[in-house]
Write a structure and sequence with these properties.
Blueprint: E1 6-7, H1 9-12, E2 24-27, E3 30-33, H2 46-49, H3 57-63, H4 67-74, E4 77-81, H5 114-123
Parallel strand pairs: 1-4
Antiparallel strand pairs: 2-3, 3-4
The chain binds protoporphyrin IX containing FE.
């Protein structure tokens, strides 16, 4: 098997399936081109079009799709999202989102929350 193709989420978002374009979507960090499946979807194309270009993990799971549906989906896989944009770890478990807080430029390096500001007022 060859190398897996990698896509950025921004690149996937360019394929919304509108105006004759291809329809890609993301399910659990894998990228699918469902253009040729749209017309076959048992629940119609509209529900998939709504997710076009985006991450359909939640929508797909909420339906409670069958194993058959998952087998079909596998046939349309074209790659995976870039490693640094993945939401799931190697075990398929959802990663904790790491939010990096940059210190404010030129500031004191300390940002006070509302509570902090109130307390400071009281202590003065
Ligand atoms: C990603 C590729 C997809 C494939 C291969 C797929 C396949 C299928 C299949 C085979 C069914 C028939 C029922 C079953 O076997 O589970 C189904 C039903 C359905 N799908 Fe999808 N589906 C896909 C994506 C989506 C997405 C993104 C949505 C968005 C919400 C969606 C919404 C539905 C709904 C609402 C039903 C009807 C469920 C029901 O009758 O209870 N599907 N799909």
């Amino acid at each position: 098997m060859g190398e897996v193709k990698r896509f950025s989420r921004a690149e996937v978002a360019q394929h919304k399936g509108r105006a004759g374009g291809r329809l890609w979507l993301i399910y659990k960090d894998s990228v699918y081109d469902l253009t040729d499946y749209l017309a076959e979807h048992p629940a119609g194309d509209a529900v998939i079009l709504e997710e076009g270009g985006g991450d359909a993990s939640k929508a797909f799971d909420e339906v409670g799709h069958s194993g058959d549906a998952r087998d079909i989906m596998a046939k349309y896989k074209i790659g995976e999202v870039n490693e640094d944009e993945k939401y799931y770890d190697e075990k398929g478990k959802k990663k904790k989102r790491v939010v990096q807080v940059q210190p404010e430029e030129g500031g004191s390096g300390e940002s006070r929350g509302l509570l902090g500001i109130c307390c400071c007022g009281l202590l003065r």
